[in-house]
Design goal:
Helices cover 33% and strands 20% of the residues. The protein has 308 residues and is an alpha/beta fold. Helix 3 (60-75) links the parallel strand 1 and strand 2 (78-83).
């Protein structure tokens, strides 16, 4: 889990996609048709912050809970967990002003802002002491597969995560092109929807003979082997620009550069667990320019998902 996702492709589909809401202890999530409070700048009202994510795995809400509890304590507002059905739905929600704070992937952030979402990156989460923001996009194959290089993916059924996933689609597409493989003609793409599902399907070796996923989910499986890996810019925590200035300041002050110890000292005892420590150590500040590498790859791949 990264406490961190289509226009030409999505088009009308984006408008049709709703947001599936999951209710966490931070509060009951609003439905996809809940109107944003445009006058106040909040997705719902001045007492509530809507925290938007796309699930990386079945544990996403549990993994985010200590962070949401911390945001609630630091801002004095109720924080509602808003789990989008997929990356396209989170993009649409951000454009429509239905989230106040969100964990994006770098690619989703670029796609959303290209399409009118007004967002500002605050920070990116690191999972170990001394680590810089960033994680790996991994090319994988079944453990007993004869595949040993990216070039061997040609002619295979290949699992991706989602057309707007940074580590599960954009970087993989770039690496396939560098290996002389046309992602649209030389392979059969399979979109798994989540990183853990991509790993599972690839490990099974039937629906997918090779695949891509983020490092944290690959590490959980003993059914796949790593063929190659590429460093990806750390996924941003962002705030909606329409929020009042004092709220934005509180979010920056509380999220820009903190450690797990800071969260525990703030009284969030649930952060003091092996599960949260496995996914969160600290945050490091990032800004919009940090994601220029993704913009450059968008130009090099001419990925239609990048376009406004």
């Amino acid at each position: 889990m990264k406490l961190r996702a289509l226009p030409a492709v999505a088009g009308a589909v984006l408008l049709a996609l709703g947001l599936a809401a999951c209710s966490g202890s931070a509060g009951a999530a609003p439905g996809s048709d809940a109107p944003s409070d445009a006058k106040s700048g909040y997705a719902i009202d001045e007492n509530t912050l809507v925290f938007g994510v796309v699930p990386d795995s079945v544990d996403t809400e549990t993994n985010y809970q200590p962070l949401m509890d911390y945001i609630a304590k630091e801002t004095g507002k109720k924080v509602e967990y808003h789990e989008s059905t997929d990356y396209a739905a989170l993009i649409e929600a951000s454009i429509a002003g239905k989230v106040d704070v969100a964990s994006f992937s770098g690619f989703t952030y670029i796609t959303a802002t290209n399409n009118g979402a007004k967002l500002t990156p605050i920070s990116s989460i690191v999972t170990k002491e001394g680590q810089e923001p960033g994680y790996y996009s991994m090319a994988i194959a079944p453990k007993d597969s004869a595949i040993s290089t990216i070039e061997d993916f040609k002619g295979k059924k290949v699992c991706f995560v989602d057309p707007s996933s940074t580590s599960g689609y954009l970087f993989p597409t770039y690496n396939l092109i560098k290996a002389g493989i046309d992602p649209e003609k030389d392979i059969t793409p399979v979109f798994a929807g989540k990183h853990d599902v991509s790993v599972t399907k690839t490990g099974e070796g039937t629906e997918c003979e090779a695949g891509f996923a983020e490092d944290s989910e690959v590490a959980k499986s003993d059914k796949v082997k790593v063929i190659a890996k590429t460093m990806v810019p750390g996924a941003p925590l962002v705030y909606a620009n329409g929020l009042p200035d004092d709220v934005k300041k509180k979010l920056v002050d509380s999220l820009a550069e903190i450690t797990i110890d800071d969260i525990i000292k703030a009284g969030i005892t649930s952060a003091d667990s092996d599960a949260f420590r496995a996914t969160f150590y600290a945050t490091k500040p990032v800004d919009d320019k940090y994601y220029d590498v993704i913009r450059d790859i968008c130009k090099q791949t001419n990925a239609k998902q990048c376009k406004a």
